[in-house]
Amino acid sequence: MIRGREHAVAAMRALATAAVLLAAGTSPARAADPCAEDVVRLCPGTTLGKGAVRKCLKAHQEDLGEACRVKLEEDDASAKRFVRDFLLACKVDLDQYCAAVEPGGGRMLACLSRHQLEISRPCLSEVERVGEARDHLAAFRSACTRDLAALCSDVPQQAGPLLECAEANAARISPECKATDFPKVSQAAAVVENVEEMASRDRVREALEILQGLDSVAFSRSQVLLQVDSFQSLGGKGNAGRMLFNPQFVFGKSGEFALQFKVPVTALYPYAADAPTQFGLGAVSTAFAWNFMGGGGVRQFLALGLQIETASTPAIGGPWALVPSYAIGIALARWFSVTMQVQWMRSLGGSDTYPELNLLILEPILVANLPGRSFVGLDTRLGWNLANGTFIPIMKGMAGFFVDRQKSLSISAWYQATLTQQAASQFFKYEVGMGLAYFFDW
Q: Which of 155-164, 172-181, 211-220, 323-332 holds the top average pLDDT?
């Protein structure tokens, strides 16, 4: 485990050093770092800053040399191992002592530090290691205060950019600043940045998991979702109940593909006194989704779905239909994201059993991550039935929480209602439901 962390630190420092030596015009870095030539070729105007060179290289990933591409992949894998090891060491302690603490801003580490007499030995070792790294950074800032103010006032005021600036101006800084041992400070900066950025990465993943429970094509991890719904006046025919089994499997080199299934079992209780209850399998649907672009707080998805005419009785089913979709998700803040989804449902061929389906849906979705691993979501579906020219607005509000800190199990409940009488006559008046979702990696 220690070797994995040291490798991550060394890899991050090597990339930062390549940028510094490049800026200083020092040629040995090109021979020592497999990405140095790619930096010269693809990122000549990149300024020193937090991850600026790395972001530039990732943006030009298709044009990188093989050695640099392999190195970036190894760096990513090492960083993931670092995060995993820290969470594994401290998971039980975080759940026990810091469950109500909002992640980010160093608050989780501060909570663990306050409970250092109670937390487990493996977690205490991790906390002490991060504490030592912070001490090195504090000593660097203290010894280099005047140098940083004079030479580095125009760079981001985080440890990484300031250290890069100090190294780039090594000939001009004071002896006191030089004495802080830049290599050790660089390692300390990598440790602290890794730990403090865990929360923001975790929040992006969490927001995507919430979207999976809102019928969005956006995805993050494989899941098994079981939800139960109760409908008032389903299609104007009667009240209904539905149990939906919704597995999803994420795969690909970077988890960029997903195969989704929805298997509903529905019971319809007709209003007509002489009509029997209708129960059975509804219209099964499946979709192939692709996360074709993602970086920072933005993700974009394309999906092609197929609704299959599998209903045991027409009243609880639907026709064969193609369902292409596009979604873009944007993290506006660490705790708040907006997703816009466009979906078109088009029936295939003619059917004596079902009316023509030609539905275009514009779907803005708001998701807020709240303290204590809780969340809320608002899903507004603005549908246009192009077959008969009607407008169908539906709004769904959801609230829930993640049972464990690894965000692998969530419980949620929701209420949704149609906003016009015309929409209610075609779909339902309102619906309440709840779901249990298990997320996993494989």
A: 323-332
Place 415 in a pLDDT band, splitting at 50, 70 and 90.
very high
User: Per residue in 220-232, pLDDT tens?
Assistant: 888 999 999 999 9
What is the C-alpha to C-alpha distance for residues 307 and 326, in angstroms, rounded to an integer? 17
User: How far apart, in Å, are the Cα atoms of 288 and each of 226, 291, 305, 428?
Assistant: 20, 10, 6, 28
Please, are residues 267 and 287 in contact by the beta-carbon 8 Å criterion?
no
DSSP 233-275: EETTTEEEEEEEEEEEEEESTTS-EEEEEEEEEEEEEESSTTS
N-to-C CA span, the chain: 21
70 phi, psi to nearest 5 deg: -65, -40
pLDDT in tens, 278-298: 999 999 999 999 999 876 678
Here the tokens at position 10 are 């060394």
Q: CA 231: distance to chain centroid? A: 31
